[in-house]
Amino acid sequence: MEEQLPTENQAAYSIQFHGQGAEYFGISIVNLLLTVITLGLYYPWAKARQLQYLYGATEFNESRFVFSGTGKEMFAGFIKAILIFAVLFAILGVCIFLELPLAGILLFYLGLFCLIPLAIHGSYKYRMSRTSWRGIRMGYRGDREELIKVFFSGLFLTLVTLGIYGAWFTMNLRNYVLNKVRFGTLHFKYQGLGADYFILNLKGYFLTIITLGIYFFWWQKDLFNYYINNLSLENEKGDTISLRSKATGGSFFLLALGNLFILIFTLGLGYAWVVTRTLRFIFGKIELSGNLELENILQSEPAFTDATGEDISDLLDFGFVI
Amino acid sequence: MIHTTAAKYFDGISSRPQSLHVWCDEHTDMLHLEDADGQKWVFGDLVLQKISVDFLEVRHKHFPGKLVEIKDAAFIAQFDALLKNRGYRNWYRALIHGGFRVHMILAACILVFLVGAYFFLIPFVAEKAVDILPRSYDAMLGEKLMPSMIDNDQVDSLKTARVNAFAALHNFQAGMPLKFIVLRSKEENAYALPDGHVVIYTGILDLMTEAPELSALLAHEAAHVRHRHSMRLLCRNMAGYILISVALSDVNGIMAVIADQAHTLTSLNYSRTFEKEADLEGLKLLRENHMDTKGMPGLFKKLDAHNKNFIPAFLATHPLTKDRIEYLEKSVKGDPAKPNPELDRIFNELRKK
Asked: pTM value?
């Protein structure tokens, strides 16, 4: 029955992005065509096609990632998200009609803020359940109420401290969400410290000003590395894969410069190449090492179908959160 | 029947790869998975993702997690052809695999369509929308704008009364009563709100030396109200922004920014068209009122001469002054002078400090 394949070298993992600009351009153009023809209703299908391509182009140890979400699932979420926004705008409209514009705006923004943790929760839950590798699904086991607490206490402290707490807020949120992400019987671990993150941003901010913006790319590099270097994957026995970034400020600078030139000289049509270039850069800069056996991961996460969060996060325009 | 090929199979329970053989049966439209409990997957249930010419992922609609990886280019090509023959290759795949040239042509078509929609569809829809919207909407819009634009302390009530008396000697047929308001300000500007309020700054009044110039300014502003220029501009702008955001927000920021800028430019141009219309329609109003038309080019000459080095606010969105003076002078050439002692009397009172 089962043929025993040679076991993989325990210390070697590879992650690569194989997407081609021309291929992604084709997908984007067909998506745009259908979105225009359907007056925007095709959007969820377009998003599904786009994600299916990008996931399929990402290889981890000789197998590709799979995004198994469908336009149909996301369409339901899309409609719900639009209804939620319509209700928010309706409340705003009613308040203006009742000559209470201030109350209307306050309610509107309060509503938007309340949507953010819901969108993070929903989009993680949906996106992870639709992400798989070798047939093993990822999953998000976060609790909505807990996330809301983390979010609003963080937001409150950030406002009270005039933004200083923002670094701790970001780290708390990231720690909470990423530590709840599962990959079959494996789980992700992220350990970011607010103080580290604060110093990183403080240094980045001031050096960027002093160097008239040049340091910005090194700042971005630091943020990227802080994300990647603190991330690891662990199984129930404690075996791990840790991630390490070898990105440099110079390489970030060249990436941004190249992307800018592509966009300007193609009047934006080269966007597909910008995306594939950027993803190739990101995955090319990540190194993985550890002692975790990749062949014994077991399916553990149920399939989940509500895509509302995914679409709210789209409408709020924060793509893939955190 | 297609030849058999070796493939990797993941059972959706563990990440351990299993080797097996797959083959297709074209008579029953089924993919056979040998060794994996002898599963047979109907073509209609397959979810295919072609990663490259020599890498095909096959999944099953109803068994999430089960995955077959086929890395045999010959088999994949044959399988592709078979699916196409049996009618399983849909229009979407045909579009995606159309190649770079087809995609460039599609991109060009979309661009042409969007530009066409922008220049032909939007103005048409906007004009139709204005025709449908009742005049009372203009009034409502004006009332909403009024408080934000006028500072009560600035109102010169004496001059306001005199300008209104001056205007009362004309019949502007604006479709709604016109209410003139004079504001104390050095700015050489005047504008009409959609509800019939016309705001005039003392700066532009101080520049005038004779009654026909004031008549001309009032007629110009009255023409704006009469032809609902504010509403038309608003409708067109809104329709334009909706088109741009729907069509382009999906694509990317830079494209949207470029389109936004272009839109601002065309709407500036569009408002220039309105200014020209207001000039010419204003002249028509003056003639219908048997008033002197020479004040129209006269006023612009003064504005132009007084502002050699910078463009006053009134001219910024207006047709280039030189052009404007030219076409106005051409238009009023044959018109006789029409002295009007009553207008002169009020005008002289207005000129008193």
From this structure: 0.74
Report the CATH number that the domain containing residue B25 is assigned in CATH: 2.30.29.30
Q: How far is A196 from chain B (nearest CA, A)?
A: 32
pLDDT digits (tens, 9 = 90+) for A173-206: 999 999 999 999 999 999 999 999 999 999 999 9
- In this structure, are B83 and B50 located in the same domain? yes
The answer to whether residue B247 neighbours chain A at the CB level (below 8 Å) is yes
Answer yes or no: do B9 and B156 share one domain: no
A135·B65 Cβ contact <8 A: yes
Block residue for tokens 């003064």: B302
Q: Give the mutation candidate from B11, B13, B16 for the A interface (greatest A CB count, under 10 A).
A: B16
Q: Write the pLDDT tens digit of every residue in A137-146.
A: 999 988 888 9
Nearest to A292 by CA among A17, A60, A9, A62: A9
**Residue A213 CB-density burial (10 A; 0-12 exposed, 13-18 middle, 19+ buried):** exposed
* Residues B244 and B347 reside in one and the same domain: yes
Whether residue A2 is predicted with pLDDT greater than 50 in this model: the reply is no
CB of A258 closer than 8 Å to CB of A277: yes
Q: Where are the alpha helices (DSSP H) in chain A?
A: 21-37, 43-56, 71-97, 101-129, 144-160, 166-179, 194-210, 216-229, 249-265, 271-284, 308-315
CB B146 within 8 A of CB B174: no
Torsional class of A302: left (φ above 0), alpha (ψ -120 to 50), beta (otherwise)? beta
Domain range for residue B107?
101-130
Which chain B residues touch A66 with a CB distance below 8 Å? Answer: 49, 57, 59, 67
Please tell me whether the interface predicted TM-score (ipTM) of this complex is above 0.90: no
* Contact predicate B203/B187, CB 8 Å: yes
**Same domain? B126 vs B139:** no
How many structural domains is chain B composed of? 3
Query: Is B132 touching A (CB cutoff 8 A)?
Result: no
Least confident of B132-136, B300-304, B314-318: B314-318
In the 3-class helix/strand/coil scheme, how is B120-141 assigned residue by residue? Answer: HHHHHHHHHHHHHCCHHHHHHH
> How far apart are the CA of A26 and the nearest CA of chain B, in angstroms?
6
Q: How far is B21 from chain A (nearest CA, A)?
A: 12
B204 and B71 housed in the same domain: no
Question: Are both B286 and B165 inside the same structural domain?
Answer: yes
B147 and B36, same structural domain?
no
Q: Are residues B304 and B231 in the same domain?
A: yes
